[in-house]
Amino acid sequence: MTDTGTARRIADRYVALRNEPDPEQRRRTVEELWTADGVHLLQPPEEIRERAAELGFAETVLEARGHDALERRVTSGYEQFVAGGEYAFRGQGEAIRVGDAVKFTWVLVRPGEDEVLGGGVEVLMLDGDGRITADYQFPGL
């Protein structure tokens, strides 16, 4: 079953969270979107993967697990990219749901502009209540 309506709602909430200025609202949204033991797994940028390989690590995946770690991850991204007003996250293209998986693309833009400065693909695995159990992020468009 493919469900684009539910997928779009989840993708929109996810992207809105990345732009949320209120720390209390960010925390509430993290708790609403993810299960208590939900995990965010990030394929790090190439320079981090290269440095890890130099140190002898065969594979590098960054992980944030549980609401506290997820909140720190979201807050870090907000502070790094959005807080200064220079960038904003935006969903792009179609969001689709097949079974328990949702896939969508997000981009980083300057507010009010259309030029894509970066972005990535998100694949979310959901539990029976529609909350995220695993969030796989693949940056780099």
Tell me the strand order in the biggest sheet: 2-1-6-5-4-3
Please give the CATH architecture. Roll
Number of strands: 6
Instruction: Point out poorly predicted stretches.
Output: none
Quickly name the level 1 CATH class: Alpha Beta
| Tally of DSSP helical segments | 4
Provide the number of structural domains.
1
Walk me through what this model shows.
This protein has 141 residues and is an alpha+beta fold. It has one domain: Nuclear Transport Factor 2, Chain: A (Roll), CATH 3.10.450. The protein contains four helices and six strands. Strands 2-1-6-5-4-3 form a six-stranded mixed β-sheet. The longest helix has 17 residues. The model has no long low-confidence stretch (mean pLDDT 92).
Summary keywords:
single chain; 141 residues; alpha+beta; Nuclear Transport Factor 2, Chain: A; six-stranded mixed sheet; 6 strands; 35% strand; globular
